[in-house]
Amino acid sequence: MSDAPTDHDLAPWIAAQRWYAAKGGSGPTLRTLSTDDDTRLVLDDAATGAVLYQAPVVVRDGTVTDATGDLDWVRGLAARIDADPESLRPIGTVTAARVLSGEQSNTSVICDTEAGEQVIVKVFRVLHHGDNPDVTTQLALSAAGSSRVPAVYGALRGSWPDSGRREGTASGHLAVAQEFLPGTRDAWRVALDDARAGVAFADDARRLGSALAEVHRTLAEVLPTTPATDERRREALATMHARLAAAEREAPAVAEHAEAVRAVYARAAEAVWPDLQRVHGDLHLGQVLAVPGERGWVFLDFEGEPLRPLTERSVPDVPLRDVAGMLRSFDYVAGALARDADPVDTGTWAHDARVAFLAGYEEGIDADLHAHREVLDAFELDKAVYEVVYETRNRPDWVAIPLSAVSRLAARSAA
């Protein structure tokens, strides 16, 4: 094998990676579209749909190796991020690097720098044309001086041939570099441990609501907002109805609640909606870090819901989507502990966390969420319906958690 592996050489290596999307098929059919500074972009014409991957590789002793584990390649990547016009602060010389284990859709590399700092560089594996909201949202927050996200150093864009576009070229983000926060736990682990130990989470939940409100306020100041027009409300509700119909087919247990859910959506259609703005888009406790000291809660991964097209994830959305996601996450803490070998009754814990979170958020935005109750109910129910389908496909023994929420939320909203 030469130092530049052919597409045929690369195929079995890509098929074995955790971030390869078409597992279970006949294997990738690759075409290299671009190779620049050892950053190789390859198109897989998979039966489930074409996917463009960023697959930088080096060859060591005749073996294809992921370049994200190669210090020289990482140094070159850091230098290109520093040279990008979007960069906010220099990374500088990387002295050591290690790949963070456990990720699937992307690859993160923790870098030690000559300046004594630690930077985490996220390399996006599946590429799309257009701005990645994980980059643009956090760039905007960092540029505004927000401490509610890891400070962004910079980002790197790339381009590749695309015969489907009029100009024949597509472009998008390849990587983003941010402050690394060692010694932290995510909010899911904090909440789970507290609930299991019988420790109230209400004070932390209130601070979490306040922190989310701060993020929403900042995003509304630095990125575009727009009124929730009749057309945008219809689009959002149409997506909810389509998800419900799909859930009825795939998870028949939803069917007995479907009419009650549709009634919630109908009330939301007539309700007052808040202005639309940039949001997190896929918020839950696992997307928040507990940073020791005064900094408190820090939010991660602003890519939005993975199943939504990239273009949809970058446009102004309903901030209540994030609120609903966090409310569902409290419910999952209670549901997870109820399934333990030594079950813990956390119904009161979850209720108190929910009330405190909403109070903190309302204080932070200086508004009463009761004015948007029907809209919040609709988004929370939509999230629960999504979870029913997810659990049916992936963890059938967990499906009772979101299914009971569908029943409870529909009944409560009708009260």
Automatic annotation (TrEMBL):
This is Trehalose synthase. Residues 98-341 form the Aminoglycoside phosphotransferase domain. Coiled coil: none annotated. Transmembrane segments: none annotated.
